[in-house]
Amino acid sequence: MVSHGYVLDLFTSTLDQVGVAEMKVIIERTGGLVVLAESFGHSIFKDSFKHVFEKGEESLGLAHNGTLKITCSKDIKIQGIIGPCTSLDKKGPVVANTMIGQWNTTSWKLCGLDKDTYLTVFFDISSSDKDPSGNVNPKVVYTNHHKIPEF
């Protein structure tokens, strides 16, 4: 699913035996939504379902099939990222040996994004690449590509 940019959204009306726990990882990695309600006729279910497809300022601001690429100077190394993404295994000299979250890459797949999607990137400031004065002048470039659906 992730390699094709699909998002897994789960709308269900039963509170047991749905398998949400088993699907947790794929839902999180694809940036999907989970809506659980007592019945399909419950107001929480109906309102949540409508809200996903709304347009305008009240919309969720959904986007899909995104990628994030980080390019940085040799002064720092990328340790990893935490958030709704999956590693694309693009290794390079700026990848740190320590691992946090989705690591060992400079690019990640973001299947589903909205205006409240947050990612946390961790960097390692390499002491071996400091200039003689001890100053570090890191430079980081974030490149994000995504598609916005047309309803």
UniProtKB/TrEMBL annotation:
Say if the entry is tagged with keyword 4Fe-4S: no
Q: What Gene3D superfamilies does its record include? A: beta-sandwich domain of Sec23/24, von Willebrand factor, type A domain
Which GO cellular component term is one of those annotated? COPII vesicle coat
One biological process GO term for this chain? intracellular protein transport
Record domain Sec23/Sec24 beta-sandwich: where? 64-128
Q: Does the keyword Cell membrane apply?
A: no
Please list the GO terms describing molecular function. GTPase activator activity; metal ion binding
Matching SUPFAM superfamilies, A to Z?
Answer: beta-sandwich domain of Sec23/24, vWA-like
Q: Where does the UniProt annotation locate this protein?
A: Cytoplasmic vesicle, COPII-coated vesicle membrane; Endoplasmic reticulum membrane
Offer one Pfam family short name for this entry.
Answer: Sec23_BS
Where do the Sec23/Sec24 trunk domain residues begin and end?
Answer: 2-53
Q: Give the main localization category.
A: membrane
**Keyword set, alphabetical order:** Cytoplasm, Cytoplasmic vesicle, Endoplasmic reticulum, ER-Golgi transport, Membrane, Metal-binding, Protein transport, Transport, Zinc
Give the membrane topology, semicolon-separated if more than one.
Peripheral membrane protein
Instruction: Write out the function statement from the record.
Output: Component of the coat protein complex II (COPII) which promotes the formation of transport vesicles from the endoplasmic reticulum (ER). The coat has two main functions, the physical deformation of the endoplasmic reticulum membrane into vesicles and the selection of cargo molecules.
Q: Which family does it belong to?
A: Belongs to the SEC23/SEC24 family. SEC23 subfamily.
- Listed name of the protein: Protein transport protein SEC23
Source organism per UniProt: Lactuca saligna (Willowleaf lettuce)
What taxonomic ancestry is recorded? Eukaryota, Viridiplantae, Streptophyta, Embryophyta, Tracheophyta
